[in-house]
Write a structure and sequence with these properties.
Distance between the termini: 41 Å
Number of strands: 0
Keywords: Flagellar rotation, Membrane, Transmembrane, Transmembrane helix
Protein name: Chemotaxis protein MotA
Number of helices: 9
Order of helices and strands: HHHHHHHHH
Largest sheet: none
Radius of gyration: 26 Å
Helix content: over 70%
Strand content: under 5%
Organism: Paracoccus denitrificans (strain Pd 1222)
Length: about 150
């Protein structure tokens, strides 16, 4: 969404500035296809010439992702905070009970309440590993070494 807004703002500023400076928009509109072909073609050609195929594919994928919008929304952030609150509340009350949730998150009733979070393996691993390391007994250096 912001990608499209950025394109609109860019064109509005460029053409608006040209008109405010006293330029005639008709001249721009008449030469626009040819100017875009020259400037855009030179930019695309230079990009293709100076990059490997893998970089070009990643760039095209990145453009698609930027136009698609963010992966996570405000409701997802709220869900993560609610999940963490529930897990930390259990950790304070009964650390042994917390272990059941962080060792097997896919079967945890708390994680199952947030299916979008549970579907992202990286987020689940980050939460579980962080809580696991926080529950370690740091007085025993061998236990910390085994975890790392």
């Amino acid at each position: 969404m912001f990608g499209m807004i950025g394109i609109v703002v860019t064109f509005a500023m460029v053409f608006g500035g040209y008109i405010l400076a006293g330029g005639k928009l008709g001249v721009i509109l008449h030469s626009l296809p040819f100017e875009m072909m020259m400037i855009g073609g030179a930019a695309v050609g230079s990009f293709l010439l100076s990059n490997e195929t893998a970089v070009i594919k990643q760039a095209l994928g990145g453009i698609g992702r930027s136009l698609k919008g963010p992966r996570w929304h405000e409701s997802d952030v709220q869900d993560v905070l609610c999940l963490l609150f529930q897990l930390l509340r259990i950790a304070r009350a009964s650390p042994v009970e917390l272990e059941e949730h962080i060792e097997k998150p896919e079967s945890s009733s708390i994680f199952q309440a947030y299916p979008r979070i549970l579907a992202d393996e990286h987020v689940v691993t980050l939460i579980a590993d962080t809580l696991r390391s926080a529950s370690l007994n740091y007085d025993d250096p061998y236990q910390v070494a085994d975890f790392a």
